[in-house]
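Training component of the fellowship. As part of building independent skills, the fellow (R.M.) carried out the full modelling exercise for a liganded target. The chosen ligand was magnesium ion. The inputs are recorded below so that the supervisory panel can assess the work.
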Amino acid sequence: MAIVTAQRLITIERHIAEQEHLHPHATGEFSRLLRDLMLAFRLIAREVSRAGLNDILGLTGTTNVYGEAVRKLDAYAHEVIIRAMEYGGHVCAIASEESEGLIPLANGRPRGKYLLLFDPLDGSSNIDVNAPIGTIFSIYRRKHPDPSAEVTETELLRPGSEQVAAGYVCYGSSVTLVYSTGNGVDVFTYDPTLGEFFLTIEKLRIPRRGKQYSVNEGNAKRWAPEVRQYVDYLKTPSEDKRRPYALRYIGTAVADVHRALHYGGIFMYPADSANPSGKLRLLYEANPLAFLVEQAGGRASDGYRRILDILPESLRQCTPVFLGSPDDVAEAEAFLQRRHPWQQGVTEPHLQRSQ
Ligand code: AHM
Ligand code: MG
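Fellow's submitted model of the complex:
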């Protein structure tokens, strides 16, 4: 049995430093910001791995801006990231899915030129049952002509295409960090005995097409008929054996997207009659995940347009999400836009279309 699987021992520290050298004008501020984030991730990973032993399972007794019950790990992750950020002084504004508006930074600390948005603990409902959960982050560079001016909320309302970096940590069978600075997607695995993230996949590429779909199908009766038709199509066996697709759904967007990045296929959270704009938050979840998927060669859409082109109107805005393998997402878009031949009754001749 191989004891060391990483062929080249590249730590995240070294990787960040090497990336910095690719940008001759880099001041090092961005690298320091990433290092501060890594420290927060290590602290969160430690608490997650001991959940059950420490007093961190269960609810805080409060609700967040979406009216959802806040879990103790949610609150812990939120606090740790803020603390790691405010003392580093590399950000001028931070916003979290768990709180309303901009988070006030400590007075008297230096301010940097970056804006950070994050979802501290994605997949909260999975925390107490030891299923994968995640942390998502999204970084922008401030554009304001006066760097000393107070940051306003509207400065964060920028399309996802302007992100300078995005990533997530998936706390699963191992802790994995996946991030991109716009130069492909790199995957790191955490060694808890050393406290180090090691590069395990360089320039991850998503397959052009997969054989798995991931969606909360319990909402099917609330979907638009086009979404139901698409899922029905995925479940219908085809002569070329390309279908049926297998259903995989964890209920943590990070984990479902992580699987899609490796195996291909499609992850979706469509609009439904209870959530007319879908459930995933554009700025905290959809944009960073879309950035990663595109950087890995995939496609990310709200069914009609590229997610990264959406101009947000509020920090809490939600969007329908279809992301994954480029051919699968293009096919989902064809269904939503009623241009797929299957909707016109063009099916494989030997198959009966299910109702
Ligand atoms: P959270 O960040 O508050 O935990 O919620 C977002 C999660 C996503 O990770 C996941 O895709 C979705 O909500 C699951 O929703 P549902 O339980 O409706 O399937
Ligand atoms: Mg989330």
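The panel noted the following from the submitted structure. The longest helix spans residues 29-49. The CA atoms of residues 281 and 315 lie 8 Å apart.
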